[in-house]
Amino acid sequence: MPSSAAAAELVERCRRAGLALATAESLTGGLVAATIVDVPGASDVLRGGVVAYAPAVKHELLGVDAALLARVGTVHEEVARQMADGARRRLGADLAVATTGVAGPGAAEGHPAGTAWVAAAADGWATAVPLQLHGNREAVRRGCTGAALRLALDGVSRLSPPRGTVKTPDEER
Fold first, then answer.
1. In the record, what terms sit under GO molecular function (predicted)?
2. Alpha carbons within 13 A on the beta-carbon side of 158
3. What is the chain's pLDDT, residue by residue, as a tens digit (173 residues)?
4. Cα–Cα separations (whole angstroms), residue 42 to 12, 46, 70, 88, 159
């Protein structure tokens, strides 16, 4: 699904479910939020976004654990989760997505270009997905954006199951 279609579906599904959305972005540099904002009606659901490019901003603004950043760097599953959860809490959203990684052209922090993590978080849960993207810097950023939007759609499904479905107690956890 192209990013624009995923963004349109995300805005519509969040609107129907009454969910507020936020973003925390590093390697995508605001592209996730911009793709959402391209959809008419995005203001009904998007609370805001944080471009946290520097590790200090990840820590100071989003609350990513400083010891974690010192130990593993910024390209890590738990960093992505904490970025998403920090954006959710800081911006007062029901669901937030985050991106972190290496856009390239060269390696960074010992990771090759195209290595990335996307994460989604809501109250009580967070998930992260690893990516290994190929292409130039723009292709990596766009690929990560698409993955973040798809993960956000999964998060909306988790928060707002289709009508007629009931969550079991195990699914509630």
1. nicotinamide-nucleotide amidase activity
2. 21
3. 789 999 999 999 999 999 999 999 999 999 999 999 999 999 999 999 999 999 999 999 999 999 999 999 999 999 999 999 999 999 999 999 999 999 999 999 999 999 999 999 999 999 999 999 999 999 999 999 999 999 999 999 999 866 554 444 454 44
4. 9, 6, 36, 17, 19
Structure tokens at 33: 């939020």
Centre a 10 Å sphere on the Cβ of residue 158 and count the other Cβ atoms it contains.
15
- Residues in contact with 78: Cβ distance below 8 Å, sequence separation at least 6, in sequence order: 68, 72, 128
Residue 172: count of CB within 10 angstroms of its CB: 7
Strand partners, 23: 49, 97
Please give the model's pTM, rounded to 2 decimal places.
Answer: 0.92
